[in-house]
Amino acid sequence: MSLQGSLDSFPLPDVLALLASTKKHGELRVAGHQGAGRVWVSDGAVVGAEAGSARVPADVLFQLLRVATGSFTFDPDADVPVGKPVDLEPLLSEAQARLVEWQLIEAVVPSMAAPVDLAEELPSPKTTVTAAQWRVLRAIGGGGTVDDVARALDIDEFHACQAVKRLVDAGLVVVGDGASERDDQDELEDEDETTDAQAEPDIEAAAYEDPDELVTIPDHLRGNRRRAPAQEAAPDPVRPARPSPMAIAAARRRAELAELSDQYSGDLVGATAAALTPENAKALVRELAELGTGTSEAAEAIEAASLAPSTEERAAALEGVLVNDEGEPLNRALLVKFLSSVRS
Questions:
Q1: Pick from 262, 280, 312: which residue ends a domain?
Q2: In angstroms, rounded to a whole number, what is the distance separating the alpha carbons of residues 49 and 39?
Q3: How far apart are CA 288 and CA 334, in angstroms?
Q4: pTM of the entire structure?
């Protein structure tokens, strides 16, 4: 018997759970404004799936869970490809966890068309970059979009946006709000530089703060900008330059990390222990792995620490993996970043 209905009335997780519990065999089709795809099941287990270019079942389910409005159809007579059966429950759990993370990613990386560029300054005098992060930085180069990163690294939308967000969290790159923002900003800067010195002052532009008060850039790191003729290049004392949204975002992020670093300067490990829970322990393990210092022993120690009943016991368990012989944190930036993500 075929099944069909609206995703508004029957959410996709419920439909999949029904197919698994009743040991169905056939093809489930999902279609909506946000995308479309197919999942093949045999005796209630997933044996194949596709959505766009995605073929890995967990990736496909993640794509289909984002289809909030649409319809589904299950055909028990459809041809089902031969594949290794995979239980639905762990696949669905992974896709739903990825969907939760996606909501956090979208707040920083709004779309694949969003421009991404290297930050004007590093977040600290010394920054450690992993091999994975370096590949993303190489793909970004002197500027581009998130889609350029995905194509250069041959990865899907989720992993491209995830990689860019992690670099934004590390203070290494900045993301704009749209694909045309960079070009629009260049046009605004060119217009500001070539405006006649005797023109009427722009009251709206005058309300902007001096960008030098937002972002401090050493003289030797400033880029050489194309200048207008000498008689027109004199700065307008009434009309300061308009700061770019990406510069403002980078300054805000650096200020946030600096505030956290100052707040917990006395005992970063203790603050990490106080904030550590079984739910966010994996995030700390993942950050260690990103820095190339994560090991299975470190992961076990962190997970064990997250289950300790008191902050003191958690701090004692963390000292073995986060503190050096002198009692100092191995990586202050890592702990500040973890505390920032917990506070967010």
A1: 262
A2: 4
A3: 8
A4: 0.47
